[in-house]
Amino acid sequence: MNIIERQLHTRPEHGTASRLARSLDRATNLVAPATGLPQGPDLNQYRVPDDFGAVATTDFVIWKETQADWKDAYADYHAGESHKASDVRGSYFYDDLNESKEKNVEYYIEVASTRDLDIVIGDWEPYNRNRPVRHRLTPGRVIWQLEQLEEAFPDKLVLAYMNLDVLKNYMARDVRLKRYKLWLSYPFGIRPPTLRDDFEVFMWQRSWTWPWPGFKNKVHALDSVDWNEVQMSRAEFRELVKPDIEEPEDPPIDIDFDKIWEHIGAGTQELNAGIKLMEEAAVKLTDLQIELQEDENG
Question: CA 167: distance to chain centroid?
Answer without folding.
Answer: 12
